[in-house]
Amino acid sequence: MIMIRKLFVLLSLSYSALAFGQVKKIDGTLKLWYNRPAENWNEALPIGNGRLGAMVFGDPAKEQLQLNEETIWSGGPNSNITSESGAAIPELRKLLFEGKFEEAQAIADVKIFPKKNSGMIYQPAGNLFLKFDGHEKATNYYRDLNIEKAVATVTYEVDGVKYKREIFSSFSDQVMMVRLTANKPGKISFSATMDSPQNGVLKIENGKLVFSGLTSDHEGEKGQIKFDSQVKAVAEGGKVALQNNTWTVKNANSATVYVSIATNFKNYHDISGNAGAKAASFLDKAVQKNYATALAAHIKFYQQYFNRVKFNIGVNEAVNKPTDQRIAEFATGNDPHLTALYFQFGRYLLISSSQPGNQPPTLQGIWNDKMLASWDSKYTININTEMNYWPAEVTNLSELHDPLFKMLKDLSVTGKETAKVMYGAKGWVTHHNTDLWRITGPVDRPYAGLWPMGGNWLSQHLWDHYMFTGDQKFLKEYYPVLKGACEFYLDVLQEEPTHKWLVVSPSNSPENTYVPGKRVSIAAGTTMDNQLLFDLFTKTSKAAEILNFDPDFRKVLKTTIARLAPMQIGKNSQLQEWMHDSDRPDDKHRHVSHLYGLYPGNQISPSRTPELFDAARTSLTYRGDPATGWSMGWKVNFWARFLDGNHAYKLITDQLKLVGGRIEGVSTTGGGTYPNLFDAHPPFQIDGNFGCTAGIAEMLLQSHDGVVHLLPALPDNWPTGQITGLVARGGYVVDITWDNNQITQLKIKSKLGGNCRLRINDNMKFNAGKIPTAKGINANPFYETPQVKAPLISALAKLNPVGVAASKDYDLKTEAGKEYIFKLN
């Protein structure tokens, strides 16, 4: 029997309530835990409050917190565009249309190169060290990161005394806190000091230990970020002293160390802030609060986001092993909880590195210990920054998208200069990198940098946010960003000579080459460019229609869409990556850019475009599974969109391969996961964590194809489980419980109302015919599916023999704010 109840609160089942083969003493809490201190940065544990980050090492005798603040960057306000930047563009277009690809590349390498900088570097603030004399021989050691509370803990024993540290970066108080306790009075004694690789001075000021620093110069730009790191120790009992640039605490019952960091940064063109006053303001307020109250406020703030989604596919005795050992054994063992932990760790990282009003996470989130980080730890926007936000909407963290949107608004301003100077165009543009100062010109060599699509791809997130929230106020606010991006491409599109298609030229298919044996990337009309243009023009037109804006502009966009180059199937039955059929079946490049239209786009579908769907799968099969960490995360999403849960799970297994660490036989190279669950590109890049979290969500719920598809790519390894709180386009919050690969309970909360079209794979046995239908109502009130439509039944019948699950659709008419509960036989 199916029961529908309105405004019915369904309590989520706890881990202990689900019979997944638990044994006694199993702790199903979401913790990363270890039985030894971190030996290096990739074993340390990350804490963050969106703005302040630290890596906690956990050594009993000498604790280290490696410190970051999100606006500590080299250089200062600047533009990296010069009048010579676009001088060769007309010549490149001519050569490309003549088929002289190597000549075009050679000219680009000489004439298209930043005469100024390639972007600034995200840099560390320094380190806090706490020294505990006599704790070198600690026993019963344990450290963890509890991602249900956003608190790191270290415990151990010395001479019969049990010591405990609690460390967190407070969301509510904007400082980091280290709480030191023992099970006997008078046993807390330590010294605390700081250092930094930055230029600056360590001093005592106003009863605080202060490091005042100035960031470094880089590529001709003077370092202009001034920052203050301020530390104060407060103890209960014992003695506290501040002298010789060191805090000393002796024989206290307990103590708390506070760390506050702030900079003079206000925005990308204003650095007039007072770093010292800002840091002091946070610190002075924090030390006045009761520690227990401060901890509770921090946890409450964090859990308002984290607790929205629960994911349980089983807990067994594997959780009793240290996390690095679990990673090392994952491929050969039975540890479903590790997948859930990894999924939720991605959400933890997004909450901890992307709070409203702050900066977006960089290539390394807010965690970086190097002055000259790999790829400058900035924003690489030919996939990596976008990937950082793939989990935001679907895993119920929509508000955390805000920093990306604010950066887009900035880029739509700074990108006007690049559009005008480099291309002679209206609107705005940015290329494949940006930074705190919102540069928009090409960086690095043209091989990667001459790609004017970065702003386009980022702009897709604006429409995606609207699709999940239905927020017309937001759409109105950001419509000028979408329109400005369109205006640029309308000005720069070129008519290619063979088919008279309108294409972007010059460009590239990010970081890949197409002439065998040659480093030739400069191209015209790449497939990804065409897909991005189709999406941008279609979505902007739809936004204008919803807002009743710009009827003439909408007509121009629709006319232009009809002239864009289509996706093509090549001689090897693959989806072509380039306008010309230049794909190589042996190409194993980490970027699979031409499948953007599959994910995160929705132009390729088993029901609407079965031939392209099959060609895309052929392309991915050629490309293969081995890859860097972030690329494997992307491929999890691809295989989920191919409705192949077992292959997606195989990629998760590849991703959860231990890299580094101190377990015998562990790999030290190749993509995978570090002992602290950070993605190993290598080195660490946070996008792999975010991409895989999004991919796991995509295996359980999809909503890009005009339907809400339940458990579309469930692997054999997850026969029983529960996911609650995922969000589908149209504003539907979805909870699913399943057993023996069958849905047993479903809850849908409709935020916006409208018809919710549910899609269930045939093998789910969803009591066919018993769900009330509402025929004639559009599947999604905010989306009109683009591209051609194909008969669903015949398309699926054609594809079913090669692994696409057959499915059935059901309509459910919903009202805003109501919940609908289905208990299934």
TrEMBL record:
Q: Which GO terms describe its molecular function?
A: alpha-L-fucosidase activity
- A Pfam family matched in the record: Glyco_hyd_65N_2
Signal as UniProt keyword: yes
Q: Which residues form the signal peptide?
A: 1-21
**Keyword Lipid biosynthesis among UniProt keywords:** no
Q: Which InterPro entries does this one have?
A: 6-hairpin_glycosidase_sf, 6hp_glycosidase-like_sf, AFCA-like_C, Alpha-L-fucosidase, GH95_cat, GH95_N_dom, Glyco_hydro_b
| Keywords noted in UniProt | Hydrolase, Signal
Residue ranges of domain Alpha fucosidase A-like C-terminal in the record: 702-770
**Name of protein:** Glycoside hydrolase family 95 protein
Q: Which organism is it from?
A: Pedobacter hiemivivus
Q: Supply the source organism's classification.
A: Bacteria, Pseudomonadati, Bacteroidota, Sphingobacteriia, Sphingobacteriales
